[in-house]
Model the fold of this input.
Amino acid sequence: MSFTPSQPELALVAQIFAKADPQKIGILTGDGALKVFGGAKLPPTVLGEIWSIADEDNNGWLPRKGVAIAVRLMGWAQKGEKVTEALVNKRECKSKSCGWHLLMIRITSGPFAYN
Done:
């Protein structure tokens, strides 16, 4: 899958990894993703669809690229778009009501369990 994350998406991915990957392994596990992506306030079924697309190799964890894909898809899902692989190449949602923006607020304000 061809994918180029935007600067805001890259910035959010960096924040996610700074909080959710303290050992600097370079992956986000399923458990870590649940904590982080819960901030998007999407139904579990939608988050599952996003995970299925973002976990390209079906590893059960996401590298930085996979997290960036998930962030983009969450943004579109927040706008009411049906999650599909085609949305991966659609540039990020720029509205402040999008998932990536909501996640950024939750990450920078510190409401999840990583210290």
